[in-house]
Amino acid sequence: DKCNENNDTYQQFDDNSAQNTVQNDAENKHNNNSRDNRRMPHSVAYLAKLAILSAIAVVLLYIEFPLFPATPWLKLNVSDVPTLLASFMFGPLSGAIVNAVKLGVCLLLRNTSTGFVGELSNLVSGSLYALIAGGVYMVRKNKIGAILSLVVSSAVFCLSMWICNQFFLLPMYGITDSAAMMPLLWWTLLFNVVKTVLTSAITFFIYKGTHKLFMRF
After folding, report:
1. DSSP labels, 97-161
2. pLDDT digits (tens, 9 = 90+) for 75-89
3. 102: nearest Cα among 66, 49, 51
4. Cβ distance 185 to 128 under 8 Å?
5. Which site in 36, 74, 99, 148 is 20 to 30 Å from 63, CA atoms measured?
6. Are the CB atoms for 188 and 161 separated by under 8 Å?
7. pLDDT per residue over 175-212, tens digit each?
8. In whole angstroms, what is the distance from residue 124 CA to residue 14 CA?
9. In terms of pTM, does the model score above 0.90?
10. Taking each helix axis from N to C terminus, what angle separates 80-90 and 117-139, rounded to the nearest 10 degrees?
């Protein structure tokens, strides 16, 4: 009888263990499904936000005007604002994605007049603009960090455009003589300084409100 009692105890223990195992497996499956369900809306919302910012960037790209009579082909726009907003809100890579999408849509809508050299230089300089701004801001997420990120990224943007103009864009148009090239480079630098200052100022003043709006969905 005592042996039978022990066997019954062991059997009851095994049954309870099996029941607990099944219950734990069910709970783990439920938790995994819950995590997957939470991830999916976040991923969809993230992509939707990037799409909105990219669409705004494309629209802003078409709102442009010449700034200096000496360089009428240089037209001012603030299409980099959504790029910087994406970098600040979601990280540097997101800003680079918005910039690439903007330029890709632009190519589809109005093709290229520079044999893709201009678009490539804009892709490189715009991506550096976004990556550096977002990278610096990730280290220090406050007003000082935002100002520092905008200043550093603007300087890199202007420098990268100077290099692209000197070694690629201007030679492509047959301007290789230093006497003819230098005035154009300085005018272009002045243009890019004005552009980045305006873009940075707009980004700085609207970022907080835009961030609150985007975090609602």
Report:
1. HHHHHHHHHHHHHH--SSTTHHHHHHHHHHHHHHHHHHHHHHH--SHHHHHHHHHHHHHHHHHHH
2. 899 999 999 999 999
3. 51
4. no
5. 148
6. yes
7. 888 898 999 999 999 999 999 999 999 999 999 999 99
8. 65
9. no
10. 40
